[in-house]
Amino acid sequence: MTQSDLPTGLPAREPADAEPASTAPAPAAPEDAVSVEREPVVEVTQREVTIERSVRVGRIVIGGLVAGALIAMIACLFFPIEEGAEYTLGQIVGFMALIGAAIGAGLGSLFAILLGFAARRRRGTGIAIQSDVR
What we know:
The chain is built from two helices and two strands. The protein has 134 residues and is of the alpha+beta class. It has a two-stranded antiparallel ribbon with strand order 1-2. The chain is elongated.
């Protein structure tokens, strides 16, 4: 038993060199019509551009937010809670996480602004090549 004799659940295929089942005559091309192959037209333009680095502000602010929340949550665990207090440790941790996140986001955005000023000092020029193909 060969591999082609195994049942695969797929319909049987005809060999590549066999004629298709329905042999309809191909429409005859008029002899006076010439098939024209168009060559692609490529327009190349070179421009001098200014290259400057930028800071991903969103990532830095979110990083500061998360770091501030975690630091505030851990810091509140070091202070004891009085016996007759009307709040629980969970409430304190959540409230401090909100405050720490706000402070961390503010510090992260300040850090992003400072990094942005430092990155703008490093400017350069380059040549951009634009190719339009039609």
